[in-house]
Amino acid sequence: MIEVGLTSIADHPELSAAGKKQSTLADYAGHFPIVEIDTTFYGLKSAATVAEWQQQVPARFRFIVKVPSVLTRHHQAAGSEPVDIRATFATFAESLAPIIATKQLAAVFFQFPPYFGVDGKNVQYLTAIRQFYPDLPVAIEFRHSSWYASQYRKSTLDLMKRLNFIHVVVDEPQTAAASVPMVPVATNADLTIMRLHGRNTLGWTNQERKERTNYTYSQDELVELATVAQSLTSKNVVVIFNNNGGGAAATNAQAFIDLLGLNFEGLAPTQLDLF
Known about the structure:
CATH topology: TIM Barrel
Number of domains: 1
Number of helices: 9
CATH superfamily: Protein of unknown function UPF0759
């Protein structure tokens, strides 16, 4: 089964039933069966907040939730207080209890920084993640190309399979020093995630996210990506459009849904057809 969703909730005004500048989660859930929540990268949320998300969506709706930045070893701001990593792992999982209980958690999402490359300490850290989260669905996106270099690619994928991690297959601009290739390989029998960042080569190294992801996929490119999604061997494939720097993600996602003739049951009721 292939499901389609977007990153963020508020960045898609075309989804707003009230015609507002920001869409709500309830608006979003009328069009897509799954969402990637990124606000958790910037700070922990409470279980009460997660329960509020849950109350806005149908029972079949699912969440991919990005882990806090400290858990992906992003540099901390100078002068910031030291963080108890073990406690953060535990607190983050506790915050997700409402959607874990109802099986609405599709994955906890670890997007590692571009400087998280292949070395012994980082391999040990990946193993430790599975020890911290023995039962949770864990998705991994690498942003350092060394993991997919010819001498390491097989070992990387074997490690992912051994740890039963969900492979995040990316589509992004291919630049000399700031890209990873698309590697359409499933490492988890239940789920593979595709994240589509767009192909804005000139803007990819820009620090501004809106410029990095400012791209509209053509119909031919959507056909190409659909072929990749259909080739993945997991029981379920989730395709997340992250090319929203110029506001194209929702429209591209709907075109992708139409291309594959997908029909998602159990969506929230909508006031009008925006597409």
